[in-house]
């Protein structure tokens, strides 16, 4: 079983945002004026997938949360999980977001996998990925200051390796999620002695 969700975070302007420079700084006011003049603004969407048994997690920062994007993310997540020894996903658990109700997403889920949607306004039914996103926000997104969107995307990739192979997790018996995988399915050696 794999849990999917999307977390929407504000895009970071090049040179850093108000967290680095302060809300009343000249830099922040310049970025604000550029936004009103039509500069690229908006959000980055963090698509996440968490395996229900091992708690192994996969995250990608993407530009939107449309059905085709979510479907492509699920295809890449399946390949990533397969590289880690999780070759068949029996069930995909999502909320009722529009991207998960699309035809593209239904097609990529396929006939061999059951798509289970949670009850509306009940995030606890998708709690594994909701908790993962909270940990991601606490330990990375809001714990550090980033100078650009590219720097944050790189940090997410590195942090994801830390989460899967080094960070202890109570759902995995006090060991990292990768400790629940079969021997020899990845080329990264875990350090959980």
Describe the protein's architecture and organization:
Strands 3-2-1-4-5 form a five-stranded mixed β-sheet, with helices on both faces. The two termini are 28 Å apart. The chain has one domain (2-180): 2-Layer Sandwich (Nucleotidyltransferase, domain 5). The model has no long low-confidence stretch (mean pLDDT 84). 39% of the residues lie in helices and 17% in strands. The radius of gyration is 18 Å and the shape is globular. The protein has 193 residues and is an alpha/beta fold.
Note the topology.
Elements: E1 2-10, H1 18-21, H2 26-36, E2 43-51, E3 57-62, H3 67-83, E4 91-94, H4 98-101, H5 103-109, E5 114-117, H6 127-141, H7 149-165
Parallel strand pairs: 1-4, 4-5
Antiparallel strand pairs: 1-2, 2-3
Which characteristics define this entry?
193 residues, five-stranded mixed sheet, 5 strands, 17% strand
């Amino acid at each position: 079983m794999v849990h999917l969700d999307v977390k929407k975070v504000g895009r970071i302007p090049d040179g850093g945002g108000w967290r680095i420079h302060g809300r009343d700084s000249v830099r922040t006011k310049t970025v604000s004026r550029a936004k009103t003049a039509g500069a690229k603004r908006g959000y980055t969407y963090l698509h996440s997938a968490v395996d229900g048994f091992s708690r192994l997690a996969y995250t990608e920062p993407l530009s939107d949360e449309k059905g085709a994007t979510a479907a492509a993310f699920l295809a890449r997540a399946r390949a990533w999980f397969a590289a880690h020894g999780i070759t068949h996903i029996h069930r995909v658990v999502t909320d009722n977001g529009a991207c998960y109700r699309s035809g593209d997403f239904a097609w990529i889920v396929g006939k061999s996998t059951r798509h289970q949607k949670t009850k509306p306004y009940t995030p606890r039914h998708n709690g594994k990925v909701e908790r993962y996103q909270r940990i991601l926000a606490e330990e990375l997104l809001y714990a550090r200051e980033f100078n650009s969107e590219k720097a944050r995307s790189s940090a997410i990739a590195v942090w994801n390796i830390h989460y899967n192979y080094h960070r202890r997790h109570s759902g995995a018996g006090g060991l990292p999620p990768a400790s629940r995988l079969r021997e020899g399915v990845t080329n990264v050696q875990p350090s959980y002695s």
